[in-house]
Amino acid sequence: MKREKSIRERIYEQEEWFLSPFATRSSDTKGRLREEKQCDFRTDFQRDRDRIIYSKAFRRLKNKTQVFCAPEGDHYVTRLTHTLDVSQIARSISRTLGLNEDLAEAIALGHDLGHTPFGHVGEKVLGKLSKHGFWHNEQSLRVVDILEKNGQGLNLTWEVRDGILQHKSTGKPATLEGEAVSLADRIAYINHDIEDAMRAGILKEEDLPQSAVKILGRRTSERIHTAIENIYETSYQKPFVQMSEEVMAATNELRKFMFQNVYALTNKQMQERSERMLTQLFEYFMEHTDKLPEPYKRLLKEYDEDRVVCDYLSGMTDRYAISVFESLFIPTNFSLSMS
Predict the structure, then answer these.
(1) Radius of gyration, CA atoms only, the chain
(2) Residue 147 lies in a domain
(3) Is 230's pLDDT higher than 80?
(4) φ/ψ of residue 157, rounded to 5
(5) Residue 186 backbone phi and psi in degrees, to 5
(6) Residue 67 banded pLDDT, cuts 50, 70, 90
(7) Residue 255 vs residue 265, higher pLDDT
(8) 3-class secondary-structure state, position 157
(9) Cα separation, 26 vs 15, whole angstroms
(10) Which segments of 161-309 are extended strands (E)?
(11) Mean of pLDDT over the chain
């Protein structure tokens, strides 16, 4: 009697029909760090996406700063909403180019899991404090490989892990889906950071470099559409995912403008307080590793104090970091004594 095909096997067949020759087939994955029995209903990339969504690190992204601290308003972008933006744009790029949307989505959802509290300021602070250095893409890989599930990790596929590690503009993803996520990340943060800066009163629409606006568009939706359309026109049926030189130059012009006129200002406002806070927390837990939560104490059997303290601090949300700092360094009756 002939065995009925599983849903996963049917998806494999559909991918052969519909995906680009340059796309990554789910059936061609290089596998996981630890071999597992396959699911009859989902491909390995679909399982990776689900594992990331249900991880603790993913849930914490909602209370991590992107650029502007969340308490300033309910509509500012957080690390979670940024991640969802990147996922949506990466899926749109992948769909137009006939790439594997499930792989792109999994990479996008996991790309910032290792980001620190207080945005890139926190990343720079830990980078200076740790003898190992600190880069959020490497920490994101450490989260999915080691820190999640009480030290077991998520055991993701090689392709998703590669895309997470290589998502920065300086990286070199091994798959076109990874390239799509890297571009989507830049498209997302430039455009939603412009919206946030306008919401905060730092920028006005007329402040944007008009040469870039002329090419990309005036509104966020126009600029994102222009980018995706241009990537399609430049990369369709090609072994790469790229923008044209003109659109990439305009995008980089906007990025440079944001660094000079927004990021430098907001980072300066957060720099002193967040640096002092994270520095004192780092020094405290380096001297008092017995005060680390139990999962991190167990990590000390395999990794040095510096690495584990960075694991703990980088996993904190903004509000939790503030709460821990207050509990350690601010007397509980301080407000009463000052009245």
Answers:
(1) 22
(2) yes
(3) yes
(4) -70, 160
(5) -65, -45
(6) confident
(7) 255
(8) strand
(9) 8
(10) none
(11) 93
**Which DSSP state fits 272?**
H
Residue 329 maps to a domain: no
| 67 phi and psi angles, rounded to 5 deg | -125, -50
Do the Cβ atoms of 151 and 296 come closer than 8 Å?
A: no
Q: How many domains does the chain have?
A: 1
CATH classification of the domain holding 109: 1.10.3210.10
> And the tokens for 194?
């412009």
Q: Please check whether residue 207 lies inside any domain of the structure.
A: yes
In which residue are the tokens 């989260």 written?
Answer: 143
Find the domain containing 107 and state its range: 22-269
Unique residue bearing structure tokens 């990874």: 178
Would the pTM count as exceeding 0.85?
Answer: yes
Q: Is residue 277 part of a domain?
A: no
- Per residue, what are the HEC states of 31-98? CECCCCCCCCCCCHHHHHHHHHHCCHHHHHHHHCECCCCHHHCCCCCEHHHHHHHHHHHHHHHHHHHC
List all residues 6 or more positions away from 192 whose beta carbon is below 8 Å from its beta carbon. Answer: 66, 77, 81, 82, 85, 220
Do 306 and 325 contact (CB within 8 A), yes or no? no
Spatial CB neighbours of 103, under 8 Å, sequence gap ≥ 6: 24, 26, 45, 94, 159, 160, 163, 175, 177
